[in-house]
Amino acid sequence: xxxxxxxxxxxxxxxxxxxxxxxxxxxxxxxxxxxxxxxxxxxxxxxxxxxxxxxxxxxxxxxxxxxxxxxxxxxxxxxxxxxxxxxxxxxxxxxxxxxxxxxxxxxxxxxxxxxxxxxxxxxxxxxxxxxxxxxxxxxxxxxxxxxxxxxxxxxxxxxxxxxxxxxxxxxxxxxxxxxxxxxxxxxxxxxxxxxxxxxxxxxxxxxxxxxxxxxxxxxxxxxxxxxxxxxxxxxx
Length: 236
Ligand SMILES: Nc1ncnc2c1ncn2[C@@H]1O[C@H](COP(=O)(O)OP(=O)(O)OP(=O)(O)O)[C@@H](O)[C@H]1O
Ligand SMILES: C=C(C)CCOP(=O)(O)O
What we know:
Blueprint: H1 8-14, H2 24-50, E1 55-57, E2 66-68, E3 71-74, H3 78-85, E4 89-91, E5 95-99, E6 103-107, H4 109-120, E7 124-129, E8 149-152, E9 158-162, H5 184-197, E10 201-206, H6 210-216, E11 230-234
Parallel strand pairs: 1-4, 2-5, 7-10, 8-11
Antiparallel strand pairs: 2-3, 5-6, 8-9, 10-11
Helix pairs in contact: 1-2, 4-5
Bound molecules: adenosine-5'-triphosphate and Isopentenyl phosphate.
Adenosine-5'-triphosphate (ATP) binds at residues 1-4, 109, 129-131, 134-135, 137-139, 172-175, 184-185, 188.
Organism: Triticum turgidum subsp. durum (Durum wheat)
GO cellular component, one term: cytosol
Binding site for ATP: 4, 130, 184, 188
């Protein structure tokens, strides 16, 4: 899912992700956040319709989804599943939702896709973002190395399979933008690891590139060097 910064500025400015709906500022931020993300959702549905793809926009908040300390508490997917059976492509988005402890928070699209993967066990999952994949350090650093393959074990521990990194370069360092309310690339990797443990390969790659088209078709071969992206999969 790629929503860029849609919703994040509105949410972070008023602190919607931290809760506190009794405050007029948070309430207004909640509304502004939803206007932003639902507007983008409508644009995406319209763009897909122009290409002849019958998609339907679905908002987690409007579907009654809610959280408990930011973890999904109620997330009935029957409307999504029925829409798929009826031949529609459901398009969801990260949303401002009600939270049982905090009053309200921001539910990330990365958490939503993990929940749907747990329910539907797809062949693979693709995350499209604004960089080529997961790097060993923030890609703003010219020495950052793109990690092509990461394996996740049964305990959730993970190791970098490709490329082979030397000594003190074996970890991943992540930075998160100040306006980001859902944890940025860190959340993406954590949720991708949960999906990979289901036996579902996850591809993280850059939107609007040949690499994204190949990932969307499931045409990814990590042994060839011409695909740019990160594959996260379960250890064999
Ligand atoms: N180690 C890292 N590897 C890859 N990207 C990183 C790393 N550290 C920080 N980043 C930053 O993470 C950003 C992508 O994460 P982000 O959560 O913004 O993804 P998105 O899917 O594009 O946006 P959104 O989730 O808001 O729709 C990149 O712009 C990149 O600069
Ligand atoms: C409402 C917002 C800010 C959506 C956030 O969702 P994400 O960018 O997918 O983590």
